[in-house]
């Protein structure tokens, strides 16, 4: 799954599509993210960054969810496309 | 004439409260769940001479992240054992809603899935194969548009058939990897010897393997308390 090229979701830019590989968190926060749809294999669209870059808004399983950098920096995966060149 | 208890579970924004209002009208009371700052809403309706008490559980994406809302919903389903748990699903976002539905199916077989917001799904060009969904999940699926009252009679009829024992369900049980299944199998007998049929042994085993401290705490509170109470004819 190209683990060496995995980057944190926090580094993706607005308009980019991102596929999740793994979550490097444990316990309740991991559970919470899984419940919200941040599941390995899932596709996330980066919607926008707040002026200071934190939090960021994501579209996941048809719902907009905002995450703090604290969490989005621990979700790893790859960028799979930009706005426009994606057909989902 | 009998009195049945129906719990409504579902994600936020699925129209669960709209359904609750449509079913119970003005016959409602609200308050707080004991010891929690979580709203408790309860109402009633009559159908074919029986009274149904409807409990509107807090809207949650899950029952396992251990917020106060989720603990209330989990504890009601697992300890209070409603006659039917209706899981309200957003027909436009089934993928997201299936998480909670599958969790409830692991807890009890007395489940009806209410596929709500069917009008919005139609508008978005989403078509749901209701029969295939019911066959796959092993429980009845009733499509509704609660805000227009569409499908409510079907839902009430299905609830009636379930409380009368006329519906046999085979709730889909998620199979986990070999290691988890091995551990579940090893734990189930001792869980059964403690709780008998009062709690679903497979579900308790899975929660314990997940390290669910909140459930352990709830089990301790409820079972230790009850064991100290002298028996007055009612079993613990």
Automatic annotation (TrEMBL), chain A:
UniProt domain Ferrous iron transporter FeoA-like: residue ranges: 7-79
Pfam families linked to this entry: FeoA (PF04023)
One Gene Ontology molecular-function label: transition metal ion binding
Keyword entries, A-Z: Iron
InterPro entries, per database record: Fe-transptr_FeoA-like, FeoA, FeoA_core_dom, Transcriptional_repressor_C
Protein name: Iron transporter FeoA
TrEMBL record, chain B:
Pfam family, one: FeoB_N
Domain of life per record: Bacteria
InterPro entries: FeoB_Cyto, FeoB_GTPase, G_FEOB_dom, GTP-bd, P-loop_NTPase
One Gene Ontology cellular component: plasma membrane
SUPFAM superfamilies per record: P-loop containing nucleoside triphosphate hydrolases (SSF52540)
MF GO annotations: ferrous iron transmembrane transporter activity; GTP binding
Cited Gene3D superfamilies: 1.10.287.1770, P-loop containing nucleotide triphosphate hydrolases (3.40.50.300)
PROSITE patterns noted in UniProt: G_FEOB
Domain FeoB-type G: 3-165
PANTHER family: FE(2+) TRANSPORTER FEOB, FERROUS IRON TRANSPORT PROTEIN B
Protein name (Swiss-Prot/TrEMBL): Iron transporter FeoB
Organism lineage string: Bacteria, Bacillati, Bacillota, Bacilli, Bacillales
């Amino acid at each position: 799954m190209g683990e060496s090229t995995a980057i944190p979701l926090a580094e993706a830019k607005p308009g980019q599509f991102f596929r999740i590989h793994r979550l490097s968190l444990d316990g309740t926060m991991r559970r919470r993210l899984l419940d919200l749809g941040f599941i390995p294999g899932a596709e996330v669209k980066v919607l926008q960054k707040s002026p200071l870059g934190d939090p960021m808004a994501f579209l996941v399983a048809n719902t907009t969810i905002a995450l703090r950098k604290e969490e989005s920096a621990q979700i790893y995966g790859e960028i799979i496309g930009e706005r426009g060149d994606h057909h989902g | 004439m009998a009195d049945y208890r129906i719990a409504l579970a579902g994600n936020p924004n699925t129209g669960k409260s709209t359904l609750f209002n449509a079913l119970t009208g003005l016959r409602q009371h609200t308050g707080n769940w004991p010891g929690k700052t979580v709203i408790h809403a309860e109402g009633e309706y009559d159908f074919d001479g029986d009274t149904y008490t409807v409990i509107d559980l807090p809207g949650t994406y899950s029952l396992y992240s251990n917020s106060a809302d989720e603990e209330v919903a989990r504890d009601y389903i697992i300890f209070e054992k409603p006659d039917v748990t209706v899981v309200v699903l957003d027909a436009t976002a089934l993928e997201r809603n299936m998480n909670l539905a599958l969790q409830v199916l692991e807890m009890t077989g007395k489940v009806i899935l209410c596929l709500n917001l069917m009008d919005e799904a139609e508008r978005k060009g989403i078509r749901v194969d209701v029969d295939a969904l019911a066959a796959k999940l092993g429980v009845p699926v009733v499509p509704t548009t609660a805000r227009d009252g569409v499908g409510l009679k079907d839902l009430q009829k299905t609830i009636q058939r379930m409380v009368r024992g006329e519906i046999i369900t085979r709730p889909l049980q998620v199979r986990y990897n070999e290691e988890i299944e091995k551990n579940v199998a090893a734990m189930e007998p001792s869980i059964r010897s403690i709780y008998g049929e009062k709690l679903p042994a497979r579900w308790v085993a899975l929660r314990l393997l997940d390290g669910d401290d909140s459930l352990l705490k709830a089990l301790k509170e409820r079972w230790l308390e009850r064991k100290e109470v002298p028996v007055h004819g009612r079993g613990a």
